[in-house]
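Q: Is it fine to ask for two folds in a single conversation?
A: Yes, each is treated on its own. Send the first.
Q: Here.
A: Result:
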Amino acid sequence: DEDIPTHKAANVMVERKINKARKKRKIYYKL
C-alpha cells in the first residue's frame, strides 16, 4: 500500500513537467 502514494506523487511531478513543457511550447508558438 505504501507504493500507491509514491506513484501518485511521481505522477503529479510528471504532470507538472508536462504542463511546464506545454506552457513553453505555447510561448514559442506566440513568438
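Q: Second one now.
A: Result:
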Amino acid sequence: MPVDVLEAPSRAASVPAEPVIMPASRPDRRPSFRMRLLMIVALNSLLWGAILWALLGIPA
C-alpha cells in the first residue's frame, strides 16, 4: 500500500506537468506567425533579387 501511495502522487505530478507545457507552446505559436511572415518577405526579396540579377545579366 505505501508503494501505491507513492506512485499516485508521481502520476498526479506528471499530469499537471503536461498541461503546463501546452500553454507555454501556445504563446510561441503567435510569434511564429509573424516569423513566418518575415521569412516569406525575406525569401520573396531574395527570390526577386535572384530573378533580377539573372535577367540583368550581371556576371557571377
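Q: Anything structural to flag on that second result?
A: Two points. DSSP finds one helix and no strands in the chain. The mean pLDDT is 71.
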